[in-house]
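Our working data are protein records whose layout never changes between entries. Getting from the letters to the C-alpha cells is the skill we practise here. To make this concrete, we reproduce a full record directly below:
***
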Amino acid sequence: MPSAAPPPLTDSDTFPIDASAVDVAWHNDDQNVWFVTAQGLMGYFEPRSPWGNTVFSQGSGVTGTANSLVSWTGHGAWTFITGEQGSAFVKCMNDGQYQVYPLNGATDCRSLALGMNKQGRPQLVAPLISWNQLAFIEAGGAVSYSMMYPDGLYAVSIASQQRGRYWLTSPKGKALVAYDASTGTFGSPVLLGVEPRDVAAAPAGDVVWVATKDKVIFKYTVDGGTLTRVETPFAANRMLATADGTLWFVSTAGDAVGYVLPDKGRAATIPTGQGSRPSGLTMSADSRLWIALSGRKALQRVSRYRLAAVSGDDQTTTVGQRFPKPFEVKATLLDGTPVGGQKIEFSVEEGAGVFENGEHTEIKHTGSQSEQLGFATSSLLTPLKEGPCPVTARWTESDAVASFTHLTVNPKPGQADRVRYVSGAGQTVPPGKSFDNPMKVIVEDAKGNTVEGAQITFRILEENMASFPGGTDIVRVPSGPDGSADSPVLTAGDKQGDFSVQVSVDDTWVSLLLRQNIT
C-alpha cells in the first residue's frame, strides 16, 4: 500500500518519501513522479491528494549502483545498474515487477536517454563509460552497441523533437559530441577546453548545455556553433532544459536548485535547505518542477508559476518626480506558457512612493489576448524619498514574485543657485545671417544638482547688434528636466563687431556673458 505524505502548504513544498532518491522522471502512463535509489530500487510518488508514495523494495536481484532513471511510455521506468560482476538495464512496471536485461560484463553508466534508432523506433541510449561506446536497448530487451569512441563518453541527452540525434560528452576529448542514429556515426567534436560532465538538450534541439567539474556551464547554440560560458554557484550534477529556454540544474553539494533564465548570462538559485542534497529533477505534465532530495528522503516541488520582470528596471529620477517608465512583468508557467487574467500586485515600501492611485500598492491584471497575453503593466510611480526604491510585483494567485531593484531616486534639487555654460558662445556670422547654434546653459542648485523649471533670461546687451525671433532683444526660457535650456535662434544685425548676450536666472546673483561676433 502507498505511504501517505502530508498535503502541501504552498505551491512550493517538500514531500517525504520512503527512499533516498538519486534521480526522478515523470511517467505519462500513470501521471506519477517515479524515482530510483542508488541501489536500483524504484518507486513512484503520486502528486495529488492523498500524496502517497510506493517503493518496490523487492528489487531486481541485481546488486550494484544506479545513477539515472528514464520513463518510457507503455514500457515502464528504466535504470542502469552497475555491479562488480556485471551490469544490466533494469525495467520496473507499474505493478512493481522488475525485469533485468544484463550486459556481457561490468561497466559504469552515468545517464540514460530515450531516442530513436535508424528505423524510427524508440530505444534507450546509455553511454558505457569504461567501454567507450553506446549501448542501445529496445522495448523487448534486445541490446546493441555503437562503434568505439576513443576519447571516451560520459553523459547523454536527446532533444524530444530530434530523437535521432544524441548529444554526448567526452571527458578525455574535452568536447561535446553528436551521434547520428540514422548513420551510426559520431560527428566532429565541439571543443570545450575543459572536462565536461552532464549534458542537457533543449526540447527543440537548438541549444545544448554542458556541465563541467568546475562552477561553469557552457551553452552551445547548434545553428550558430557558438559557445557561451555561464558561471554557477556550484558545479552542476543534473540538468534539465525546458521549452522556454531556461536551464535548471542541481548538485548534491549545492543544497539548491540552480537556473539560468533565457538570454541571461548568470545563474540564480532556489535554496532547498541545509543537507537536502538535491540529486535529480524532472518536470510534470502540469509544468511543475520536481526535485529529488537525497539527503532528506523527500521530493520538493518548485512552483509551476513564474513572474519575470520585462521592463522598467534601471531608471533614475528625483524625489517627487515620476519614474519615466512603468513596470512591466510577464506571468508564465515553467514551460513558458503565458497566463492571462491573473491578478498582479505592484508595491513599494510604504512611505517610499505612490502609484497613480495615490497608494503604495496597486492591482493590475495580465492581458488575455494576442500580444498582451500574460503581460501586466503598472502605472507610473512617484518616489517620496531619496535612495534605492525597489518595486515588487507579486502574482497573487501563486507565490511567484518579480523584483525591480535597480531604481535610483536622487534628492530633490534646491533653489536655483547658478547657471553653467555648455555651448553656443564664440560664433561668427556675416551681417544679417542667423547664428548656427543656440546658446545652451544648465541651471544648478547650491549642491550642483540640476534644477528643472527655472526661468532663464537671455538678454542682448548692445543695441541693434542682433535680435531673437520677433525682433526682440530679450527672451525667457524655462529649464528642462535635466536643468538645461537652449536660446531661440539669434540673428545678426547689419553692423559688424562683437556683442554680448547676458544669461541669468531669476532670484540668483550669478549670470554669464556670452560673446558673439559679426564680420
